[in-house]
Amino acid sequence: MLGTATSGLFYYVLAYVVAVVGCGLALRRAVAIDDDETRRGLIGLLFSSGGWAAAQLAYLLAPPAYQYALYLTGLIIGLTTVGAWLYFASAYTGRAFHRNTTYRRAAVGTYVAIVAVKVTNPLHGYYFTSEWVSTPFAHLAIQQGVVHWVVTGLSYSLVAIGFFMLFDQFLEADFDTRPLAALVGATALPVAFDVAEIVSESLLDLSLEPVGVAVFAVGTLYVFEDRFLSVQLSDGVDDGLVYLDGDDRVRDVNEHAIEAFPTLRGADGARLDQVFPALAAELDADEGLLEQRDDSGGTYYLVTTTEFVRARGKIGRLVMLSDVTEAERRRQELARQNEQLESIAAAMRHELFNTLQIVAGRVDIAGSELERGDVQSARDSLRTASRTAERMRQLVEDFADLARKGKTIEATEDIDFAAAADEAWRSLDPDGVEFNRENGGSIRGDPDRLRSLLVSAFRFAVHNEASRVHVRLVEGGLWVADDGHEHADLDPEAFFEYGGAVPDAEAGIALPNVRTLARVHGWTAAVDGDYDGGVKIGVRGACTEPDQSSGATGPGADSETVASQSR
């Protein structure tokens, strides 16, 4: 068994060897940190702490003639750890103290002044005194002077500022930072040893702070490296953050992400593609966009990732979910408007071309008829040309009205559906067509645009040679059905294409207008392909409160149940 003196020396030597080796190992990882200032501060801290530990180790093992100089060297190197610690803490937490010229000059001036006192200690002895002793083992014993305690108090005060910056960062971070806080706390444990040295005569007056730094550095860069880097990146970020390891397993999730996506709660340790496949699919996309559907519509999140890569490969990544709903809705609205304007322009070109051909053809026919003396036929041809031109004028007005109403509405209100449907039908006033409003209720939307939507739907039904038109408000929408021609052989989507001339050119832009006016509300419009006996148009996605009762009244009556009229 080792003697007391030998074992005492062994434990001191072991502690400093651990510190030197730990700082060296951590240095290998520290040089790969992406942030320049954090990397510079941590490398400086590891160099100074490792050098301090090496000087203390040499002091213990060197011959007596060199111990004084080595102890003094350790004091000078050890003082640099204070500046390195503050630089690292400021850089890691995103503060600017380490860039402040006044602070830097004050730090250098203070360091030079203290080093001058230490170097001249053999002349004045105010910093420490020494004597050769043999217990607990042969070494140069140090008795600290008053200047040492002043410098120590100043150093601990400055180091405490670094602790405050780091702990404040950990408290503000929306992650589980307890492991990192524990590692930072480990750097302060040697202070307890310093206090014990004051009250115990058996302990040497040596500093073990390098051991605490080594524990902190190895822990953060080898055990919790991805968390250590993620916390720095997440400072001041109010977006959702998901913290993944190298195998894309969830390591941590902040509250913003859990509030937006409850499925992430309790997902620690699970693979992301198992608990949240939609997000996993967006991770490697060039422009990942995640949509979250809810009662108020869609919420859109931009998915961005920051990978932590070392020589051994990817060690993890931080996924940020930024709410870009407003920007995405504006983009979609612009895309919709551009598509709509292109469709309208194409339809206008088509209609104008057809109209000009018809007018020109009818005028030529009228001229030919006049040459033959058939005034009546010429008059009929000119009347047809006039009606065609009038139809074109009406279409141009419809296009202009649609362009005005085609912007997404910003405000809605509860609309009396019965009144809106009856008014829309009266504006057409078709002869020989019966109108049946099967119920009433309320629908949330824009009154003017809803009326235009219904007018367009009714106009198509009349053109479809219906003898009876039905309209009904249902949960989540409405439908308009007629008993006119069936078009089972046509693609239902073709009815809504501007310029598509479906089912014929005379149908105009009635159904394309229905879809456009539905879209500005955030609704959808489609032809029911399963409906027999005519055409049925369904509008879905609306907020409605339909009446379930039914009856039979005229379109202008007060009843909100059914309106029917034969003309």
UniProtKB/TrEMBL annotation:
Residues 324-351 form a coiled coil. One of its GO terms (molecular function) is ATP binding. One of its GO terms (biological process) is phosphorelay signal transduction system. It catalyses: ATP + protein L-histidine = ADP + protein N-phospho-L-histidine. Its EC number is 2.7.13.3. InterPro entries: BphY/WalK/GraS-like, HATPase_C_sf, HisK_dim/P_dom, HisK_dim/P_sf, HisKA_7TM. Residues 542-567 are annotated as: Disordered. The chain crosses the membrane at residues 12-31, 43-62, 68-88, 108-127, 147-167, 179-200. Residues 15-223 form the Histidine kinase N-terminal 7TM region domain. It comes from the Archaea. Keywords: ATP-binding, Coiled coil, Kinase, Membrane, Nucleotide-binding, Transferase, Transmembrane, Transmembrane helix, Two-component regulatory system. This is histidine kinase. The lineage of its organism: Archaea, Methanobacteriati, Methanobacteriota, Stenosarchaea group, Halobacteria.
